[in-house]
Amino acid sequence: MKILVLGSGGREDALVWKISQSPLVSKIYCAPGNGGICSREKTECLPFKTEDVSKLADFALKEKVDLTVVGPEAPLVAGIADLFEQKGLKVFGPKRAGARLEGSKVFAKDFMERYGIPTAFHKTFEDSRVARDYALDNLPLVVKADGLAGGKGAIVCKTKEEAEKAIERIMVRKEFGPSGERVVIEEFLEGEEATFMILTDGNRVIALPPAQDHKAVFDGDKGPNTGGMGAYAPAPVVDEERKKEIIEKIVKPTLDGLEREGIDYRGCLYFGLMLTKRGPCVLEFNCRFGDPEIQPLVMLMESDIVPFLKGAADGKLKGEIKWKEGAAVCVIMASGGYPGRYEKGKEIKGLDEVSKMKDVVVFNAGVSRENGILKTAGGRVLAVTARADNLKQAIGLAYQAVDKISFENEHHRTDIGRKALK
Fold first, then answer.
1. Tell me: the pLDDT tens digits for 201-227?
2. Using CA atoms, how far apart are residues 316 and 201, in angstroms rounded to an integer?
3. Which percentage of the chain shows pLDDT scores above 70?
4. Is residue 217 within 8 Å of 226, Cβ to Cβ?
């Protein structure tokens, strides 16, 4: 098989790393990839951006690509799966109609309301002054840009100053572009966050082990939200009883709702949850694998991932995924200043030493390769991921690896996975 992976971050490197281990696969193309992905076994990076949809489709037809796996959300929301399907190309990832669950917070909230899926109480606003007046009277709350914002468009506000600033950033200054034309303002839910992802072919469901992301930039969940500063799996906060509750009250009604609306959803469906006293509530849907949640999950996956990706795309998902015992932890090493302004082009040192460590993989996120030297090229630079017999050991191993790697102004959280140990 020939497989095309779309994207350029740590999620895509994790998928390429896992797909390359499949005996079914002879060649992997990654568009555009990055300076680390292109060194993976069987892999060639392509000079196409994910928005070059027509060029990618032409390439896939010419090279007889058997399956395209879409990593990021933007091409799915833009309808890449629709175009590929029209050309007879198989895609892992939903078509535009299904991707609206992530592409529009307003659509997602209305969808949950229609099908009785538990979520935070919310209101939608198109006028910044009306939004501001409502926010000041209903603290604490969360202000969310309607459209895609790279994981940074949800702002928790506990004071009037924070609420005014959030609405100013999203609706007035348009920091997230057209995504901020509308905002959803919702009640602030208390509890622990968890990520619950499924693979689906539109009918059958395979649940992946629950994970927990760490979105805030600093230790103790302080500071602004990022695309994710680390993750671990499985998350003990989602035990078997809670897993059944999530499937019955959230997953099944979501898939039933999609079917009732005539949406044939094939791919990964991500449920970002808050585990509250009144039960699990949906914070957000994503139409693709979580980043950095997929990194620890591929480390734990014993099965070949390819038959499951292809099965979902073909509408013939079958079998069960086998998982290794133990736990895995991913620590993001980021550029100083992220998620705000940061510098690029810093040389990354220590990777050779880490490559000799057992049960540790460094997934490449924001990196470039210049004259054979790996350098920083993004906010989230590396996803250092370790697997061990238990979570405490996995945390220790991941941070041992982090300590061996360095680049100028590097920043990482030192508490990834710690809350699970309590």
1. 999 999 999 999 999 999 999 999 899
2. 6
3. 100
4. yes
What phi and psi values does residue 189 have, to the nearest 5 degrees? -95, 140
Which residues, at least 6 apart from 303, have a Cβ–Cβ distance to it below 8 Å?
Answer: 319, 321, 322, 323
Compute CA 14 distance to the chain's CA centroid, rounded to the nearest angstrom: 12
Helix (H, G, I), strand (E, B), or coil: what is residue 321?
coil
**How many residues are recorded in the chain?**
422
What's domain 190-314's architecture?
A: 2-Layer Sandwich (3.30)
Q: What is the CATH number of domain 2-93?
A: 3.40.50.20
Distance, in Å, from the CA atom of 60 to the CA atom of 313, rounded to the nearest integer, reads 15
The pLDDT tens digits of the residues spanning 349-373 come to: 999 999 999 999 999 999 999 999 9
**Residue range(s) occupied by CATH 3.40.50.20 in the chain:** 2-93
Q: In 3D, which of 23, 39, 8 has the Cα closest to residue 361?
A: 39
Among 204, 285, 161, smallest CA distance to 169 is for 161
**Paired residues of 197 in beta bridges:** 270
Tokens of 327: 């736990």
| Rounded-to-integer distance, Cα 47 and Cα 32, Å | 6
CA 251 to chain centre: 18
What token pair was written down for 57? 């489709």
Instruction: Give the separation between CA 411 and CA 135, rounded to whole angstroms.
Output: 33
288-339 pLDDT per residue, tens: 999 999 999 999 999 999 999 999 999 999 999 999 999 999 999 999 999 9
Rounded Cα distance between 290 and 240, Å, is 21
> What angle in degrees, to the nearest 10, is found between the helix axes of 160-167 and 128-136?
160
The three-point CA angle 265-12-374 to 5° equals: 165
- CA 384 to chain CA centroid, nearest Å: 16
